[in-house]
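Worked example 3. Consider a protein that binds FE2/S2 (inorganic) cluster.
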Amino acid sequence: MTKFYPVKVADVRRETRDAIVLTLDVPKEYKEAFRFVPGQYLTLRATIDGEEVRRSYSICAAANDTHLRVGIKKVAGGLFSNWASEHLAPGQTIEAMPPMGNFHVPLGAQQKRHFVGFAAGSGITPLLSIVKSTLTAEPQSSFTLFYGNRASSTIMFREELEDLKNEHLDRFSLIHVLSREQQDIDLFNGRIDKEKCDQLLEHWIDVSSIDTAFICGPQDMMVGVAQSLEEHGLDKRRIKFELFATSTPGRRQRRPEEAKAEKRQNLCEATIVIDGRARTISFEKGTSSVLDAATAEGLELPYACKGGVCSTCRAMLVEGEVDMDANFALEDYEVARGYILTCQSYPVTDKIVVDFDK
Ligand SMILES: Cc1cc2nc3c(=O)[nH]c(=O)nc-3n(C[C@H](O)[C@H](O)[C@H](O)COP(=O)(O)OP(=O)(O)OC[C@H]3O[C@@H](n4cnc5c(N)ncnc54)[C@H](O)[C@@H]3O)c2cc1C
Ligand code: FES
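Given these inputs, the predicted complex is written out as structure tokens:
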């Protein structure tokens, strides 16, 4: 589960001026491990300037596509996205962890549902996979996608989305919302935020027709759209999120000297179970997250963002209590079942047992 596998870069396509699409060739022997459901992401690992860097990228391929594909959009000053855009080339090998994530609903051929997607910028990547897979797997279902961008030149997967629309004219409705390019229908000008979503729900789409809404984009957009959907009557359980980065920093990591100043010298004994093996480590409460403490002891654990966003570090807290600083990834039902984000969890009790295999 923690394992990274070498995968070959089969193709690098420049999608827009600042986005690429990587096609990855997974060797036959790992194919099973890389089976995915639409909406899941890969964690990629590379060594950049001597530093190990891990980042998550959503799969944009449909469930039945033969190749794995991810879309990477450059973030200003961003380490991995700029490196990938400038250095990755066909034939190179990169390391990837098998697909993870819960940004999906199970599909069934007999279902007749109406899904709605709200995406902004690179947030289209998981939605492209979800839309394509849904239209294929549920022939009676329909999808309405609102996709926000600055201008038509920055729209990722523009042609692919148009093709999809032409192929499924009666079941796929695609609405581009542009913030810096004027369109004829005023409703589709501007940014996708709460106010825009309110207007869309009042003038364009009937909320009672929505079975599930998927939202992927910046945090403020996601919060606004979700709030609007709920205010218009959509049950919270029918709203699925995927967050790429947070603008709200979690509680900052506490430093050892701060903890000492607080005279919190008490130790926690943490048993970590992973890949069927248990190992017990001991560390001072309040100084390190469970993930940091365990990796410092040499344990190979899964993680990517270390910011409470991606859920790669998810594990089950089997015994004891932790304080979870930030959680932008786990759903309420997962927390209720005992799952924690180990990168954000600080032990409260003297003993904890954390199981990555559950
Ligand atoms: C589950 C998941 C799926 C993701 N899927 C995709 C995807 O399909 N395509 C994609 O392009 N990215 C995706 N991301 C974001 C991706 O993992 C990286 O965070 C992003 O590429 C920036 O990494 P970096 O190393 O270039 O920037 P860093 O060096 O990590 O960050 C540089 C600065 O940019 C900010 N930042 C980081 N990410 C973003 C962002 N997305 N938008 C705006 N500011 C940001 C950081 O806070 C920091 O200030 C996903 C993230 C998660 C958690
Ligand atoms: S590593 Fe991303 S949530 Fe913990």
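Take a moment to read the result before moving on. Residues 117 and 214 are 5 Å apart (CA to CA). The pocket of FE2/S2 (inorganic) cluster (ligand 2) is lined by residues 303-306, 308-313, 329, 341, 343 (CB under 6 Å).
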